Amino acid sequence: MARRLPRPRRVALPGGDGGGGSRREVWAVSGRDLPVLAREAGLVDGAGPPVYLRRGVSLGPGDAVLDVGANVGLFSLAAWERVGPRGRVVACEPVPPLAEALRRNLAAAGAPTADVIECGLADGTASSAAFTFYPACAGWSTLAALEDPEEVARGVEAFLERELRAPPPRGGKGPAPPPEVRFARLLKAALPGRFYLPLQRRFVRRLLQGGLRVDARLRTVSDVLRSHGLRQVDLLKIDVERAEAAVLAGVDAEDWPRIRQVALEAHAGPGLDRCLALLRGPGGFPEVIAEPAGTNMEETGLFNVYARRPPPSLGS
User: Fold this and answer.
1) How confident is the model at residue 159 (pLDDT cuts 50, 70, 90)?
2) What is the tens place of the pLDDT at every residue in 51-106?
3) In the sheet where 120-121 sits, what is the strand order?
4) How far apart are CA 66 and CA 225, in angstroms?
5) What is the C-alpha separation between 156 and 208, in angstroms, rounded?
6) What DSSP letter does each residue of 51-87 carry, written as one string?
7) CATH class for domain 24-143+212-308?
């Protein structure tokens, strides 16, 4: 008997302020990966700007965003706060429970839910694909064909280590860390590394044993531009766990000039190299930057990539 997909639930955003000192709540499937997603989206106190709005990449009122691999929509929320009702946030997410949470989060913020597309994006060579969905760690869900269980496990371990090293909130403010992080801190303090590390690895792999197969349709960036009437994309954001190059390959040559900025997360190796080649070659971006993706994330081989076009001159 096939396992049922979990339903989204309301979860307090780690370190998020809902105003008046209240905790901001969002719709999510798993709470374990919310600290990473919230920090990346700049929705945690003291986190700074969203990770996808750095190195000169910016958004303003009236801009249009295409969020590929939106997950539950925390970056989409951050983008909507910047572009406002005169702008647009078109968000793509192939896993149904995550797409439902994404839709609910954007609806609560007043964004049009018609711009939420339940699909994956790729290069156009296939119309559908199987995804591996991790209900306990939804942020690491990925195309089944590209899944590397050991790499995913290393990513979760790096996240856990970063949480363990994080200093307590200033002034005692902010939410308590998740129960597993508190328990891991106790174990790490009490046990020598040779005993603690095997326990950590066993815990992470048990989290990932519950991966579910989800079949979803695939589209291309250019297809979405046409179907949703996007004449210009001020930011193409991509976070699709090893399928970034396939998404970029789904941009038709005539559509590249319509994309003003790109920000994506890529894994070191051939995938990252191909992303840089596509952005500098067919993409025609004169400015492309790749840098390790944050504190303690070098262990997972992740890089953030930013590409921008210069603003049009006043006389053009």
Assistant:
1) low
2) 999 999 999 999 999 999 999 999 999 999 999 999 999 999 999 999 999 999 99
3) 120-121, 212-219, 128-133, 142-143
4) 9
5) 9
6) TTS-TT----TT-EEEEES-TTSHHHHHHHHHH-TTS
7) alpha beta
Report whether 245 contacts 220 (CB < 8 A): no
Residue 92 carries which side chain, given as an amino acid letter? C
- The DSSP 8-state label assigned to residue 256 in this structure reads G
Tokens of residue 74, six digits:
């925390």
CA gap 290, 306 in Å, rounded: 7
In the chain, residues under CATH classification 3.40.50.150 are 24-143+212-308
Quote the CA–CA distance of 255 and 47 in Å, as a whole number. Answer: 34
Could you tell me which residues come within 8 angstroms of residue 76 by beta carbon, excluding any fewer than 6 positions away? 65, 67, 70, 89, 91, 102, 105, 106, 111
* pTM over cut 0.90: no
Rounded to whole angstroms, what are the CA distances from 267 to 248, 272, 316? Answer: 14, 6, 38
Dmax (CA) of the chain? 67
Count of beta carbons in the 10 Å neighbourhood of residue 6 = 15
Is residue 77 within 8 Å of residue 109, measured between CB atoms?
A: yes
